[in-house]
Amino acid sequence: MTQGDLIPQKPGTYRGTLKEQIRHGQGKYVYKNSFYTYEGEWVDGLKHGEGRLSMKNGGYYKGDFQRGEIRGKGERSWINGDFYRGEFEGGELHGDGVMVYGDGSRYEGFWVYNRYEGMGILTLKNGDLYTGEFHRHKRHGEGKQIWKEKGSEYEGGWVAGKPHGSGIMKYKDGGKYEGQFSHGLRQGQGTYTHIKGITYSGLWINDDIPPEELPQHMVVVGATELEIYQGEGLDLEIAILHTNGDVMEGETGRQIMITGGFLIPPDNPPKSFSDDHEKFNSPFGDAVVIPLGFKPDLDGLSETPSAATATDTSSKGEKQGMEYVALPTPEPIDMVKSSKCGHVNWSRVTIPPFNLNKRAYSTGCETLDQLTDDDDVANPEDTKQKGKKKGTKTSPMNTKSTNKDRVGSAEGRDKWKMSGMRAEREKDLQKYGPPGNYVIRLEDVTEPPFFEQRLSPVYVRVIVNRVKHSSTKFFIPKRTSVVTTTDKK
């Protein structure tokens, strides 16, 4: 550095080598407006070769010059923090290059006079990423966009910066749309697949499915009010219907949950149902949530007797045609099932025992203390009494009990019967739910909801009758088939 280099250069002056009084070789020129300063190579009075053009505001260009113009490879910096390194033409960004913006965004690809053009990769400051074709500074052609914050991505056709034509959109919740787009909206024919496997294929208008194309409601196939015995199983089926009432055969993957409930008598609700018990409303009344079970492998109660099976030989007519059966203990049930071709099925659903205070049943069903004449059983002592000759008397001296307490007396038989039946009832409640009025709720729990819509729940009322006993054995009425909700033709 010479002493002259320390002296500020005036605007419109050149300091460097000359050739025939023309700038040639290395030199520094301060423009007359003093905003620009060029320092570098000169050829025949023109900037040519390697050089640096500095701006008074702090920006600069450093790179190739050809015959006075910025042309070739170089780098450009702006005072707002933008920085470009790549190819130039006439001072414009043109050709391959990388631009890093002051806000953190970045573009790498081809440029045509300061605009994105052709293939490129654009990363925005929020993390969104696009890889594909550009035209006039916009996403245009084929490309893939990933929206970081939204958690979705699209791959397919683009026009003027928006999805257009055929493409695939994947959503944060796991859903996927494949079909036609128009100016960023799903439009035309397309297929949407929910994360649970629910699919819709058909027409789309303004980014949505026409309301008439969506499933409208669920229905119970068969009766909605049923009557069974303790330990007996139910077959339940629901169908998902279209607006016109047809089953939506393409509806697969919707999550349906089954919930059991003990109906609370509206006129005299049990006090033992505290706020700790989960409840739900139904068309049949309020209910306390109870567990449900699955009855293993006993499809025909009278057709598959166990080793304990025996025919009732009682002389009473109402007990003829009964069989003793060993009913299996209910097992846990799958509470949530997926629809298949518009249907959901549960087989052999039972009501197992549940831990509510037995006083809670006092107004909803019979308690252990409420034994009726229907519980009448064959008493071995009755046979002895009937075997005595008419007129034979029993001496009070020959027994330790009074007439009131003797087994052969009416009250004695009742006491014997009640103690035996109470023991049997206790055993029943340890293995099966108590008799009474119940409701089963079937509800759509698909998560996330299919297009923000959940189908309304449906309900089945179930009356559970007590299993009858003869001595210490079960007997239930013969049935040709298991009670079901379906009425299949």
Care to give the gist of this entry?
With 489 residues, this protein is mainly beta. The protein is built from two helices and 32 strands. The strands form four sheets. The chain has a 17-stranded antiparallel sheet, with no helix packed on it.
Describe this structure in words.
The chain has 489 residues and is mainly beta. 6% of the residues lie in helices and 43% in strands. It has 2 helices and 32 strands. The chain has a 17-stranded antiparallel sheet, with no helix packed on it. Strands 19, 21, 22, 23, 27, 29 and 30 form a 7-stranded mixed sheet that branches. A 5-stranded antiparallel sheet has the order 18-20-28-24-26, with no helix packed on it. A hairpin with a 2-residue loop joins strand 9 (106-112) and strand 10 (115-123). The longest helix has 22 residues, at 410-431. It is rod-shaped, with a radius of gyration of 44 Å. Mean pLDDT is 78; it is low at 296-326, 358-408 and 470-489.
